[in-house]
Amino acid sequence: MEQFFYTIIYWVKKIIVKTKYNIFLILKKITNKKRKLEINGEFIKICKIFTGGGNLVSTQCKIVKRNLIVNVSEELDHHNAEIIRDKIDKLIIKHNIKCVIFDFSNTKFMDSSGIGVIMGRYKNIKNMGGNVVVTNVNTRMDRIFKLSGLYRIINSYDGVDQALKDISNIS
């Protein structure tokens, strides 16, 4: 049974990294069974890291008049940056977004991958004639933005409403 467990972990890592399938679909595919599998906590933890499950990716997106409001999860780090990046990029293209507003009201931690997400969206949206702004930045995030130099290319607002109002005045 233990060998089976490690084999599943190996294949789940390979499949998730390549295709980003839902973890339960992967388990069904590997075991070819529809019944719920009894697996231990370590396996679930590994799957959450690779899929962004649990609290790792609770980022919500909302579109208001071609503005994408991204309510960033508690942590914007290397575990969930790719998932968030892909989600935002798809919405930008699908809805012809002109401005991305990152709302950091719930965010407690961000690493260099988070900075990369913001800079990458800035580059993409700037090429389309748009803009990126941040809102509700706490002191910890503010320090990261200052040290990274992000404030040189993006504006910061106290709230989403203020950002939307300012963006509509510019347009």
TrEMBL record:
One of its GO terms (biological process) is sporulation resulting in formation of a cellular spore. Residues 57-167 form the STAS domain. Pfam families: STAS. Gene3D superfamilies: STAS domain. The keyword Calcium does not apply. GO terms for molecular function: anti-sigma factor antagonist activity; antisigma factor binding. Keywords: Phosphoprotein, Sporulation. In the phosphorylated form it could act as an anti-anti-sigma factor that counteracts SpoIIAB and thus releases sigma f from inhibition. Belongs to the anti-sigma-factor antagonist family. This is Anti-sigma F factor antagonist. It comes from Vallitalea guaymasensis. The gene is spoIIAA.
